């Protein structure tokens, strides 16, 4: 009897340790608490690499706030209210659907993209992903559920702007991985191409890379991260990865990545690029960090995009 009690105690301790570690990993990796948004604050990413671009980024945010826009919202497949803003360059122009990065906001990550779209004579819908800014939710799923949200936004655009509307899917960082994951779905013919800027190729690989970066044992901790996603976030972290999804892609894709990106290695875009079976273009920007391809080398960015659009014969 004593032996059974000891085994039971050991089992309970191990279960407690497993669940406790998984919960901590969930909180650190996926949980997004209720957000207090200060509309007066200019939210710029932290880090020295962004300082040279701060004035430009702040100007983009302020100028975007002064543009006329339409507030939009949809219901996600699991009942969350997701919100975005639509900026119109010209009625009937193609619409670029833009998704921001991990723990980001549409305003912080995509304000510059609004003016890029206007330069290309496109309308643009920037959205706050689930668990971020003005959208509902408390769990960020590294593109697993966000890619399903992307499809819902596509359907919203078609229902709102007509069955002939042309759509470009664009994302930066986790947003890039999200649109790549959406590329493997049964997309409507309205989607004409995808722009993926500094996205990761695998949730597992990027999470393990970050764990190693903070000097912790990645192989030991990753199973707890995955378990935390399943037990407390109620999603399968490895349901689909960008590199697996893009193998089913049917539309052209252009990839951008800075070669000095120390958060998402540029090789991950190369992995996605090599797996893509459609017309594709990989644009590597030397000496630029994470998410800085457009502000860092705007002329080259436009040049590459224009060449790509000529290649796929998409012009408005």
* Overall shape: globular
Q: How far is the N terminus from the C terminus?
A: 79 Å
Helix and strand composition category: alpha/beta
Please give the share of residues in helix.
40-55%
Strand content: 15-25%
Major β-sheet strand ordering: 1-2-4-3-5-6-7-8
Structure description:
The chain has 316 residues and is α/β, with parallel strands linked by helices. The chain is built from 11 helices and 8 strands. An 8-stranded mixed sheet has the order 1-2-4-3-5-6-7-8, sandwiched between helices. Helix 5 links the parallel strand 5 and strand 6. Helix 4 packs across helix 5. The radius of gyration is 20 Å and the shape is globular. It starts with a helix and ends in a 5-residue tail after the last helix.
What are its keywords?
316 residues; alpha/beta; 11 helices; 8 strands; 43% helix; 15% strand; globular
Protein topology:
Elements: H1 2-29, H2 54-65, E1 70-75, E2 81-87, E3 95-99, H3 106-119, E4 123-127, H4 146-161, E5 167-172, H5 174-183, E6 191-197, H6 203-213, H7 218-231, H8 242-245, E7 253-258, H9 266-275, E8 280-285, H10 293-296, H11 298-311
Parallel strand pairs: 3-4, 3-5, 5-6, 6-7, 7-8
Antiparallel strand pairs: 1-2, 2-4
Compact description:
The chain has 316 residues and is an alpha/beta fold. The protein has helices at residues 2-29, 54-65, 106-119, 146-161, 174-183, 203-213, 218-231, 242-245, 266-275, 293-296, 298-311, and strands spanning 70-75, 81-87, 95-99, 123-127, 167-172, 191-197, 253-258, 280-285.
